[in-house]
Amino acid sequence: MAGLATSLGSGSMTNSIAEIAAMGPGDCMVVIGSNTTECHPIIGLAMLEAKRRGAALVVIDPREIDLARRADVWLRLTPGTDVTLLSALARTIVDEGLADTAFIDGRTEGFAAFCQSLAAFAPEAAAGVCGVAADDIRRAARIIGRAANAAFYYTMGVTQHVTGTDNVLAVSNLALVTGNLGRPRTGVNPLRGQNNVQGSCDMGALPNVLTGYRSVADDAVRRTFEAAWGVALPALPGLTIPKMLDGAHHGTVRGLFVFGENPMRSDPDIAHVERCLKAAEFLAVQDIFLTETAALADVVLPGASFAEKDGTFASTERRVQRVRRAIAPVGGSRPDWVILADLLARLGRPERYESAEAVFDEMRRLTPTYAGMTYARLEHGGLQWPCPDENHPGTPILHVGRFARGLGKFVPLAARCRAEPPDADYPLTLSTGRVVAHYHTGTMTRRCFGLAGVAPEELAEVHPDAAARYGVTDGEQMTVRTRRGQVTVRAAVTRRVPPGMVFMTFHFTESPANALTTAEADPVAGTPSLKACAAAIGNVQCSEETR
Amino acid sequence: MQRINTTCPYCGVGCSLTLGVADGRIVSADPGPAPSVNGPALCSKGRYGFDFVTHADRLKTPLIRSRGRLVPASWDDALALVADSLGTLAAAHGPQCVGGLSSARCTIEENYLFQKLFRAGLGSNNVDHCARL
Fold first, then answer.
1. Rounded to a whole number, what is the largest CA-CA distance in chain A?
2. Interface pTM (ipTM) of the complex?
3. Statement to judge: residues A158 and A208 lie in one domain
4. Where do the domains of chain B lie, and which CATH numbers do they carry?
5. Per-residue confidence band for B130, with pLDDT thresholds at 50, 70 and 90
6. CA A317 to chain centre
7. How far apart are CA A186 and CA A27, in angstroms?
């Protein structure tokens, strides 16, 4: 988000999902660090159908994901070399005269400095760094550069690196140099992994902004909210989750309230997370299950699932849609908005809410991008923000004619080192992700009969060469070790991963991948390097003998 | 059987769902009415991912830690303890000593209230959520 806010002025998906269904000959999809068919299956399906109709597909991913098998060009990059590869694509496009000069002249700034920065990224040089063939870089660049429309899709494979913000900027540079923004079937499209992560960001569930991405440090913004809420608001940005956890560890943060989130399995280096949560003087957890995090709490508040309450979610394409109560709250649980409204009242606040809709109406009056949305207007298919007034149809495509920041900004980049490169003790790279049957820490999907049975346990992917070298057998238990910890897990020996990679999901509490991952993070966005840390694997018997 | 149109609780695609409800339980999930991003399709999670809602493991009462164990408590006691504990810590040590992790699974309304709870209720900008995971 930080990356796109810099280059385009908005950190959200620029275009709409439905555009994929209109793609065909002359169009190109570029999928980077996104296992779309597993993690966003309905979008993955649309991509496969577009490919069948004749759209081109370029895939950039270290793993041989389903989309890679169907790609016109699959660039199997070495983890952490995204900036080099994406910059080499941009350089080739410029060198071969495929840049959109009219777009660059009319709508962007910083192109000259960007071109100078590309000197370091000749295809041959990049090929060595990234572990791909220079000719494949050229082939991909020509497909992208010659396409009438190219749309870029990415997820955590781009962001969950210590260079995550630079990686996003490299994608943005590529879209700018080819003029693929501000019209249908183009765009820089981060696909959000959770149902309402877009809405959480929109609502200012972030330490530096109020609703609609307006800075807490901006006096005028704060005055608006202070007038509406009748209270003075703090101007200093707050702490991100990793800093709050560290603060608990160091005693500067004493009270934590974890709402519908399971950092004891979802966050990197869970031994550290546990130390931090236990160090807090007071921990409240609001959830629907007694998660590994709730088990550490001083107070647990039972919230309600999506099926037991009214409200709205914002999808990855900025579309706000209704969530409707289907059944009564289970047991003595309560809709989460009711619980939070009660806590506000107990803290002496005057507001009382009769319904989720009343909360929405208060919010939209304070949020220009949501101002035109009402529950009545959301009734049929929802609306995409910005939607500034009640006659506005919503905004399927951002940056049409003008970028949110005015001109699109090229950002010169330099290649930087990834987190924790492999070494003699930890010669492999651990990367984490998801499978289609499960969601996050598995608290929901592992309690669903039809999903738990499909993927009942972790199957950690290891390349046959690594398996042979370290005595690991397909289908047998193996150990995976990093500097943070060790887990025992069943091995799936497969060429889907490159020779130096071990791949695990974070769905399984009995073999928690985040016991292994590093909390080392991108310095701008704070996103941890969950896609790359150094690891070692071993045969279970050998590991036990040496311990 | 009642049929309720809603939005899928899993990934960020935002598929439209129609839940079938009988005897207070969800018995089916189908693609919801047009217009929708998913048309006639749902993935495995959308189609088969609703058992958790009425799973026996659901928390049914608030819990308060007493002599090291989490034991059932009344809503009034649990809510009072949360409000008093966070409010007292913020008053005694400054609002920057409390923090909240909001939820990307929960609604827009709930995220709005959660950040309002920390900013307007406790005076702290220490609010964040798991967007990075």
1. 71
2. 0.98
3. no
4. 2-54 (2.20.25.90), 63-129 (no CATH)
5. confident
6. 13
7. 9
